[in-house]
Amino acid sequence: MGLKLSKMKHKIRIINNLVNHQIFNYIITVVILLQAIVLAFETFPEFKNYISLFEYINVFVLSIFIIEAVLKMIALYPHSYNYFKSGWNILDFIIIVLSLLPLTGGFTTVARLIRLLRVTRLTNRSKEMSVMVMTIIKSLPSMINIFLLLSLLFFIYGIAGYHLFNSIDSEHWGTLPKSLITLFKILTLEGWVEIMAPVTDVNPLNGIFFVSFIIIGTFIVINIFVAVIVKKSEEAYKHIQQEFSHSVTQNEILEELKEIKRLMENLEKRIPKDKEENITY
Question: How many angstroms separate the CA atoms of 112 and 107, rounded?
Answer without folding.
Answer: 9
